[in-house]
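Figure 2 data, in text form.
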Amino acid sequence: MTHMQYDLEHTGTPQAHVRDLMTPAPLAISPATSVDEAYRLMQGQRIGHLPVCEDGRLVGLISERDLRLVLPSLIRPTRRPSSQTGR
C-alpha cells in the first residue's frame, strides 16, 4: 500500500507527499562527468535533471537548461526548407 492509498483510506482525501512522487533511486553522475555525457544521458533517459554525487553524497544538481545555457550548440536548430532558386 502506498502512502497515498493509506491517506485516502484513512482520511478520505489523498495527501500527496514528495515520497509518493519522487524517483527513489535516480540516475546520478559525478562532478567529473563531461557535459556531453551528461547531456546524452538526459536525452537518452528522457530526463531534465541529474543529481551530481561524490563519495555517495549529493554535491549538486544539473539541469538540461543549465547545459543549454552554457553550450547553446547542444540545441539542434530546426531545419528550414531550402530556398528555391531561379526565381
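Caption note: The CA atoms of residues 32 and 54 lie 9 Å apart.
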